[in-house]
Amino acid sequence: MLERKGFISKEHITIAENSESDQLINLSLTKKELIDIERTISEKKFELEELPLKQFIEKQEIDRILASVNQEIINIESQTESVIVASSSGFININNFDLGSHVEQSTLLLNIVPNTKKFSINLYIPSQSIGFVKNGDIVNIRYSAYPYQKFGIFKAKVISISRTAIPAQEVKSIGTVFHTLDIANEPIYLVKAELEKQYIEVNKIKKALEIGMTLDADILHEKRKLYEWIFEPLITINKNSI
């Protein structure tokens, strides 16, 4: 109408129409971008809401992996070492291994000597001599490290006698038990004796005994008067003849 009345030219109208069209297109694009932005915001909000759960699940998975690794480490260590707790306090007397060396299961590695324990001695008695040994018998001791000619003979008392014999081969690791060949392979009985003294006097100084010291010993049996020993065979014969 304005064009007909001559108020505006056709060119200006065309320009205005094109501008309006461009604005409509831009508005449409802007609305589309707004929709995309709103969708992105919604997705990010959802991700933020899900993040604690995701972190929790990831943490659980990490904890599971760590627990599995720790258990594997424990299993490996248990195959390479063992921890043995002593039943009482004391000191190590024998250290029979080197760090990192391989040892068999039955190998003696060390002895732990309790601080308050009194020493006793192990006597290995051949089967042919065990018959008359009894608790309370007196034992004369001669320590190998201290010649009895100079330091004398020491006393002990039998406190226990094993009821079963030990094969001679099982005690060969401690050295020569018997000096006589005819009894060297005999079964052996273990007799324990309690020492009268826990020390040896060397130049008037009391020297503590050491674990593993070797000795010779004589077990003294019952005491009798001389005439009883003389007449015992006759008494035995007389009893057998009745």
TrEMBL record:
Which source organism?
A: Photorhabdus hindustanensis
Record protein name field: AprE-like beta-barrel domain-containing protein
InterPro entries the UniProt entry points to: Beta-barrel_AprE (IPR058982), MFP (IPR050739)
Identify the residues that the record assigns to the AprE-like beta-barrel domain, covering every copy.
Answer: 121-220
